[in-house]
């Protein structure tokens, strides 16, 4: 066996190290970017979105724009960092099914800039359906039009070739506390937005029931994760140039009782 001189061997190690280092760094960066940061909120684990050029928008998403305070409230912000606007999104790591979903928010939703969007919704993983299907959305957005109503309830159909159905409404608030709900049943979806953080006795902002037939075409029956996001329509900067913060005081999910056997 031929011996390699010690000095030549050292040079070989240095050369290999220089060649491998950039690749190793790239792999480490890729692996780090792929690992989702998680947090605990409202008794559930949530994954935090982080990275550039991802939908909706597309936008840049920054994990620093999401945190839970010492009162257990979830904060989401749209922030300008290093000259770029960054957004926030969290998603439950488990899938939820038929039931009542409630979000208590603290924000002047009625004063949102034309390009700001708050989404409270479920969304289908790839094994459930493609984009623009199966979603149940509560969104506060003007979609780039300053004079548009800010409230939106939307149901995306279970069948891909069908169109979504939406109910839009004005929001006029005297304060920043509001409650938003949808109840997802096998044959209908009931929406409600209300003033305050109390029960059903509080003054409603808007209600809507979606029960279009045939049910299997329009209402998904597959469990899905819940998303909460704060983002910019088409990636456009706020027209007023201001950062935005929304607080989710709590999220509640009450599963429906399973249907009784006949």
Overview of this protein structure:
There is one protein chain. This protein has two domains: 1-35; 36-255, Jelly Rolls (Sandwich). It contains two helices and 17 strands. It has helices spanning 6-34, 215-218; strands at 37-41, 44-48, 51-54, 59-61, 66-68, 74-81, 84-92, 99-106, 116-122, 136-141, 151-155, 165-169, 177-184, 189-195, 204-210, 226-232, 244-255. The protein has a 17-stranded mixed beta sheet that branches.
Sequence-ordered SSE layout with sheet pairings:
Blueprint: H1 6-34, E1 37-41, E2 44-48, E3 51-54, E4 59-61, E5 66-68, E6 74-81, E7 84-92, E8 99-106, E9 116-122, E10 136-141, E11 151-155, E12 165-169, E13 177-184, E14 189-195, E15 204-210, H2 215-218, E16 226-232, E17 244-255
Rg: 23 Å
Taking the sheet with the most strands, its summary is: 17 strands, mixed
What is the mean pLDDT?
88
> How many beta strands in the DSSP annotation?
17
Work out the helix count.
2
Name the shape in a single word. globular
Strand content: 35-45%
- The helicity comes to 10-25%
Name of the CATH architecture of the largest domain: Sandwich
**What class, by secondary structure content?**
mainly beta
- Summed up, the domain count is 2
CATH topology of the largest domain: Jelly Rolls
CATH first level of the largest domain? Mainly Beta
The residue ranges in which pLDDT falls below 50 over 5 or more consecutive positions are: 1-35
């Amino acid at each position: 066996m031929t011996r390699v001189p010690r000095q030549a061997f050292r040079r070989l190690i240095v050369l290999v190290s220089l060649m491998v280092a950039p690749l190793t760094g790239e792999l480490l960066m890729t692996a780090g970017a792929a690992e989702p940061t998680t947090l605990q909120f409202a008794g559930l684990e949530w994954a935090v979105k982080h990275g550039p050029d991802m939908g909706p928008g597309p936008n840049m998403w920054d994990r620093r724009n999401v945190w839970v305070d010492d009162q257990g409230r979830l904060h989401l912000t749209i922030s300008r960092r290093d000259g770029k606007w960054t957004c926030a999104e969290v998603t439950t790591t488990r899938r939820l099914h038929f039931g009542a979903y409630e979000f208590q928010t603290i924000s002047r939703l009625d004063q949102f800039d034309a390009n700001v969007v708050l989404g409270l919704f479920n969304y289908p993983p790839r094994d459930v359906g493609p984009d623009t299907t199966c979603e149940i959305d509560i969104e506060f957005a003007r979609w780039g039009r300053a004079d548009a109503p800010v409230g939106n309830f939307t149901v995306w159909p279970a069948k891909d070739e069908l169109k979504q159905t939406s109910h839009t409404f004005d929001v006029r608030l005297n304060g920043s506390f509001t409650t938003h709900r949808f109840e997802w049943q096998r044959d209908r979806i009931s929406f409600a937005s209300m003033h305050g953080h109390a029960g059903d006795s509080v003054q409603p902002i808007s209600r809507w029931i979606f029960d279009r037939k045939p049910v299997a075409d329009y209402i998904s029956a597959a469990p899905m994760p819940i998303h909460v996001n704060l983002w910019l329509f088409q990636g456009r900067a706020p027209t007023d140039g201001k950062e935005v913060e929304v607080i989710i005081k709590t999220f509640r999910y009450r599963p429906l009782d399973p249907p009784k056997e006949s």
